[in-house]
Design goal:
Blueprint lengths: L2 H8 L6 H21 L2 E4 L6 E7 L2 E8 L10 E7 L8 E5 H16 L13 H7 L1 E3 L6 H6 E5 L2 H7 L2 H8 L12 E6 L2 E7 L5 H18 L11
Antiparallel strand pairs: 1-2, 2-3, 3-4, 4-9, 5-7, 5-8, 6-7, 8-9
């Protein structure tokens, strides 16, 4: 089940003309859909990245579709970021199990390789998060969610507040054609920000739309972690 992800670590990345063509073909439908949602749409002329900008809870967010920044992602990458302004101490990672296990195996190979004298600076920081945070679980979410995803954090109560039943349901139930459980996917709260990163597979508008829905729902849920402002005197 994990072969596709593991092989990605060792491949040499080549710029594929068909990827650029796919992005160009995506511009029109994405732009039209963004307009119906009130999102700003733009294209980076240099890298051909598509970007959507919006607000959730008054906080600006950006979602980009373009060339991958991680070697475990094939084809195009969806990534999003929002400056939530919640406590910098909040750290929660939701990652699909095949990606977590592939990253752990890669890290083990590095640290047990006698010829590896130093950690490769190109390795994704996700490996460090896996070492820093503990996997947690709790009752209240469906078994299918825990079969597909892992939740890692240093404070279980933060994870329980953030990953509520509606957010878990969105992560589980993608519209067809849906990403398989093996497609790299993660959402993260770290340093007061929310992040999403996933492989754009299947490369369809419905995948992008649902990823945007997951991310905005994750941002809304994360804002519950912000302590209420003290009343004015």
């Amino acid at each position: 089940m994990f072969d596709r992800i593991k092989k990605a670590f060792s491949r040499e990345r080549k710029e594929a003309p068909q990827e650029e063509s796919a992005l160009h073909l995506t511009h029109g439908p994405v732009s039209e859909w963004a307009g119906t949602q009130g999102f700003a749409f733009s294209v980076d002329g240099a890298s051909q990245n598509i970007a959507l900008d919006g607000k959730v809870g008054g906080k600006p967010w950006r979602l980009q579709l373009g060339r991958p920044t991680r070697n475990y992602i094939l084809g195009q990458e969806l990534r999003a970021r929002c400056e939530l302004g919640i406590s910098n101490d909040t750290a929660v990672l939701v990652i699909n199990r095949p990606l977590k296990e592939a990253l752990e195996k890669r890290a083990y190979q590095i640290y047990t390789d006698d010829l590896q004298t130093s950690v490769d600076s190109t390795l994704p920081e996700e490996m460090r998060w896996l070492a820093m945070y503990d996997e947690v679980g709790w009752d209240g979410l469906p078994r299918e969610f825990w079969d597909r995803c892992c939740v890692l954090t240093d404070k279980r109560e933060n994870a329980q507040t953030w990953v509520d039943a509606p957010l878990a349901d969105l992560i589980l139930n993608w519209p067809k054609p849906a990403p398989s459980a093996e497609v790299p996917f993660m959402i993260l709260l770290l340093n007061g920000k929310a992040y999403l990163r996933m492989e754009y597979t299947p490369a369809s508008l419905t995948t992008l739309q649902h990823a945007a829905q997951i991310f905005t729902a994750a941002c809304e849920s994360a804002l519950q972690l912000q302590p209420p402002k003290p009343p004015r005197r």
